[in-house]
Every structure is written in structure tokens, then in C-alpha cells.
Amino acid sequence: MSDHSPAQADNVTMSSGGLYSLATKGAKDVIDKATPQVLEAIDRMNPEPELSEFHMVDMGCADGGTSLQMVEAVIQKVRQAGTETPIRVTYSDQPRNDFNALVGIIHGISDFDTYLNRHNNVFPSCSGASFYLQGVPDLSVDLGFSATAMHWLSRKPCDIANHVHMVGASKSELQVFAEQARTDWETILLCRARELKPGGRLVLVNFCIDPDGQYLGNTGGINMFDTFHSNWSQMLDQKRISQHEYARMTLPQYYNTIEEFSEPLVDTDSRCYRAGLRLEKIQTAVVRCPFAAEFESDNDTKNFADGLIPTIRSWNESTFLGALDPARPTDERNQLIEDYYELYRQQVLDDPSGHGMDYVHAYMTIARV
Amino acid sequence: MSDHSPAQADNVTMSSGGLYSLATKGAKDVIDKATPQVLEAIDRMNPEPELSEFHMVDMGCADGGTSLQMVEAVIQKVRQAGTETPIRVTYSDQPRNDFNALVGIIHGISDFDTYLNRHNNVFPSCSGASFYLQGVPDLSVDLGFSATAMHWLSRKPCDIANHVHMVGASKSELQVFAEQARTDWETILLCRARELKPGGRLVLVNFCIDPDGQYLGNTGGINMFDTFHSNWSQMLDQKRISQHEYARMTLPQYYNTIEEFSEPLVDTDSRCYRAGLRLEKIQTAVVRCPFAAEFESDNDTKNFADGLIPTIRSWNESTFLGALDPARPTDERNQLIEDYYELYRQQVLDDPSGHGMDYVHAYMTIARV
What we know:
The structure is a homodimer.
Chain A: H1 19-23, H2 25-45, E1 54-59, H3 68-80, E2 87-92, H4 99-106, E3 122-127, E4 141-147, H5 171-195, E5 196-209, H6 224-237, H7 243-248, E6 256-257, H8 258-266, H9 271-274, E7 277-287, H10 290-298, H11 301-323, H12 330-350, E8 359-368
Parallel strand pairs in A: 1-2, 1-4, 2-3, 4-5, 5-6
Antiparallel strand pairs in A: 5-8, 7-8
């Protein structure tokens, strides 16, 4: 029985206390960019005015702040059909997510402006079932959405010896990661196939390696993941971390290509295709790092470094921290992590050119026949 | 628009971090006592095997630990109908509730044993809509449950000058509280009338004043609420708190009588009756204070005091803290609260006889025609 197991690999949590949405302006930009595709998906569904309810799910929602406006656009779209159909919004994430921040943001006890201020007959709720599990009953979802979440694998299939991420893995390591990612992607899709109503749609916005070989933080300038690795390696050279700590720092992530995302949705023999899922649309797009963009206009190096490093920390700090020997005192571990990110910050301060974390995503619409 | 407003009067929160369920063994005893009535209510509903889903709601759930076994009994009962009908369990509480503890307990990342370990096709989710709001769509609930929660008023209608609770209010203050409670009870019931499916049932287990005049902590021994008041009054006499702090310490609670609970459900002209709610059953019962019961068998005074005081703090500390002048430094406020509860603890240590917090509830079953 795995209904209640953690959502992703252990030691992976986003920043808590509402900090996630504050730190990740770029993640909101990505969702804003996806919003027209979400509305188009609703057009394709053509919801009937006599619909008993419209149920959308935001999977891997973190604190929910980045998707508030997208959810409101969906509410407006459904209301345009001319009815007061009840709208259920299920937010899901792993059980260690910060649900207090999520509920606070949705219910307006935060600095975020919630759609509940303007819309009636909308019923949000939260689920601790990750996207690796079925989170809602069979045939109950009209619209499934997820952004910048499904690159987290269900487990770390192996350590990557000389890097911290699959983008720098050796050929054999990459094969192991690709196989894990293939299985995980199939698991994710088969859960969704059960949850979706016939005619329902998924809009999934996932990190990818695009046809030009670009990916998160690697769009022509300095490769962000290589910086992660070289700085971690420097801490090993300085004997501040052990060989074991160096080696096991491996992000349990995989960035699929367009082909890898598409395969189970177009191969008529695949389990996902047979379960009724069909790829309607897939395209990639780059969303500019908001901190790099701001730097281009204001040339304020300190502001740039003080924006970029926290946005990086918000999603990978827990993994770096988890790689450190738990026998070290907590203070010592925290100091090592502070020093690790300070290295990066100083590099940006010394020479900001080429730094940044551009987002590279595949934007998919998937139908359930 | 009030869809997202806090669930109860401000400054009312239960203990966080899973401490609520650990501290309130008695609250679980009450739910266990109600469980046969819950199962009987399901018998009356006679759920059909081809039911598309069975949806139960636990309103005012706190961290969910006290109701885990009752929810599992419901799951078993529904499964006895011989089907794998999906079961949705919606947990609701005010948005400042500790949802992290709640999700952790439900999903098995706590010391509590969750029903998800043993049952498939069960989908829990959490809502930050209090029982003063409609939390789920119209006509969507089979079974609504709430225990030891609905005595919290939506607001404090006035201060009680010479006591901390309505059980010690003057006649005119009591009238104001009774009117607030009447309106609040109607609001709570009308929300439920919208949510329930026809044929659905509510089982509500609410603090009451029973036909013998007994209520929480007042069942023949020392009146717990009078102790709250006399100790608070003593801090005023010692000039440790101001007259203003003394006066505004008023718990926003009301304990209805059987007649007050029943009135909108049996008066054929009432809005609740016209909305389809019918009282099927109401009875009162006393559940013994588990710490007093333990003391009777082991005569361990320290153990008694160290159990009783935390169970009291778990539900009223936030109100005492909120009565203190916010201009005081936080440390000073915390120390005053420590000292306040220490007074009570010493009284129990000095002479334990007559102390305790017996629970006095009305157990209601309400049908939606």
C-alpha cells in the first residue's frame, strides 16, 4: 500500500512559510505564460452549462501563490459559460509540503490576493497525495494542471559520481536516470488517466531539454548546474566536505526531451495511450530569468545576486543539506550550506555576466478520450 | 464576500504540531463514544452499492488524530456494502489551523496509525473553510461529522465582566451570548443543509449544558471555569495583569442546552427545518476526564496535574494570551501565561480532589430530507 507515501524522493522540500512564491517570481511567470494554453484547453473541453461541477487540480502546487492568477482565469472562463457551476480546486503536493502557507494564501491570510475575494461557489481543498499517487476518485477531474514540479523523480536511482545533476551524468548513469524517469512519467500519466473524466484535459508545464539542448540555467551563458557542481567540488578540494558527501549530492531530477515526454502518449501500444491519454499539443519555450532581466535594465549587481541565489536555494537547498553527514552538528551543516551559496553569490558579484536561471519548459496539452 | 474568512473568532487556535491530539485524549474518547451513532446513521442512509462516491466531512478536525479510528470505522462500514466505492474524506477547519500536522497525521508521517495503511480508494483532503462557511459544493455530502468544535462562536459578542466564560455571565451578558449562539447555530446548520445530499446525515457532538446543569469541567467537583476565573482574578489582584486585560478575557464559546440545539430542527417554521433538516436523535452523555480517571487508579498527583493542565492549555491558551496587552513584550506575555497555568497546576498538586475536566456533550443525528 503506498497511498500515503511521500510525494517525491526524500529530503526534497520547497521553501516554507510562503517564501516559495516570494522567491520564485520566475515560476509564476511560467504559469502566466501557460495560462492561454489552459484556457484553450477549456475551450476544447467545451464545458456544458448544466455541468454539475467543474473540478480542477493543481499538482505540485507548493504554497499555491504562483498559480492564484491562473486559477482565477480558469474560474472566469468557466463562469463565462454563463452558469454558477460549483468549482472545486484541489491543490496537491507531497505530505511534507507547507500546507499552512498554502491554506493561508488561498484563504487570504497572507500578502497574496486570492480569487476567493471575488468569486462565489468556489471550493478549494488540499491533498497530501503527490502526483505519483491517485489523489482524487476515478473519473472526477475536468482539468489537471502542473507546473515546474514533475521533474522530481520518485527516487534517486543512483548517485552521479562527478556532477550533481543528470545533465552532467556519465553515459551509464544517464541510462539509469532515463529509465527511472521513463517509469515515473508513465506512473504519473496512468494516475491522471484514472482521475480524468472522459473529455478532460491535462496542461502540464514541465522542465525539459529543448531541441537546441537548452535547459534550466543553461541557455547560452554560464551553465548553472556546472556552477553548482564546481562549487561543491571546490568544497571537497578544501576538505570542507567529505568524498562521500560530495558523491551523494545528486538531485533526484530528470529533464525529459520532447520525444521522451511524447512517447507514451503517441505510441498506440503504450499503457498510457491504451488508458485513453492523447497528446494534443507540445511546445517548448524559454522564460527569461527575472533577476537577470532586471539586472540588464538596472545594472545593479548586488540586487541581482541577492535575487538569484534565494530563487536557487528555494528548490535545491534541502537536497544539498540532505547530502551532508547527519553526524555533523546541525549548526555546522547549516554553516556549510550558507558558505556554499555564498560562494555562488560572490561569483555573481565579481562578474555577473552570463549568470542567471532561464526557465526551459515543455508546455503540453493532453486529452483523455 | 466571506468565503475565506477565519473560521472562528480571532485568537482562537488549537495546539499545533500534532500536540492537539496528543494532549486531548479525552477528545478522542468522545469521538470513540460517538462512533456507534455514526455507524447507525450510515445504516439509516442505507448507501447503495452502486453509489458513485461516499463523501464524509470532519468539521473542526484540528490535527485529525482524534478521529482517525472513527473515520476508519466509517470506511469499513461503507466497504461492508460490498463495493469499492471511492470514499472522499474532507477535513475542514479554520485557515489558521495546523494543516501541516493534519496532513502529516493522515499520510502516516507521524506517530499515529492512519487508515491509509489499510484501505484503498480513500481520498482525504483538507479545507480551510470553517463550519461557518459552505466548504464543499451543494448536495455533495453523505455524512457530516463534527466533535467538540461548534461551541466556538463566530465572534465574541461582548466581554463578560466578572468571569471568563458564559457559564458565569450576568443575565444581560448571557442574553447577548445566547443570541449570538442562536444565530451561529442557524448559520452552521444552513451551510450543512446546502452541502448534504438528500438522505445524508449529520452526526454532531457538541459541548452542552445537560438537563442536570452539568457542563465541561462541572460535573459535581470543583467548577473548572470558576477556577479559570478565580486564578485570572488573582493575577489582577496581584496587579500582574491590568483591569482591561482582566475584563477582555472572555472565551468566545457558548454551550447550548438540548432545547437550544433542537429548536431550529423541530420548529416547522424555522429556516433550518424548511431547508430540509430534521432532528433524528439527541442525547447527552458525560465522558470522564481521562486524567482524573487515571488518578483514581494510580493516585499519582503529579502525573494528574501534568496531564490535566496541558489538556486545558491545548484549547484555551490562545485566548488567554490574546487577552494580554500586545504592547507587552512577547517574553513577558508568555511568562504571564506560564505563571497563570502554574497557579492551577499547584492547586491540583496541593489538593487534587474534585479537579478534572469531564466532557459533557450532546450527541445529535440530523437527517437531510
